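note to self — DONT lose this again. spent like an hour looking for the file last time. sequence + predicted structure for the chain T wanted, 180 res
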Amino acid sequence: LQGSVATPAGEVRIESRLLGAPNLYNWLGAIGAAQSVGIDVATIEAGIRNLTAVRGRFEYVESEGGPTVIVDYAHKPDALEKLLQAVRDLAKGRRVVLIVGCGGDRDKDKRPKMGAIAARLADYTVLTSDNPRGEKPEAILDDIEAGMRGAANYTRITDRRDAIGRTIAEATDDDVIVIA
């Protein structure tokens, strides 16, 4: 991301390898906080330039060619929705493929909500297992699938490693794959 923010202490240039609106919102808060304790613009700019992604938080996975891959923990409906909206903004018309699962023995109510969000915001969704704990993985996928009501743009691959490998292998170079 690149841009600038006008502040009472002067313009702060944002140049970063990090992507997405969530990072921009975090920077705006950090810039305000830093300036409120007297940190100068040059130090703030250097700090933003040197930031690296937190693993699993809108993490861009670099590769030689192939699709764009973004990994994000997004384990709640609101987080998944914001993630997919941010990816859509970055994708600029490219196909967004979501690989998603829900953990077992936790928040069963969220599963259909996650499915509904996937059906609405992803062009294609791969439902997969994500730490089923004591539950049967297929039962978790059934719960997610229940929220996808009539959507035809998805598949189920229970084994997460297989789901990721197959999705990347079948993707085009223009696809954006989101692993949540």
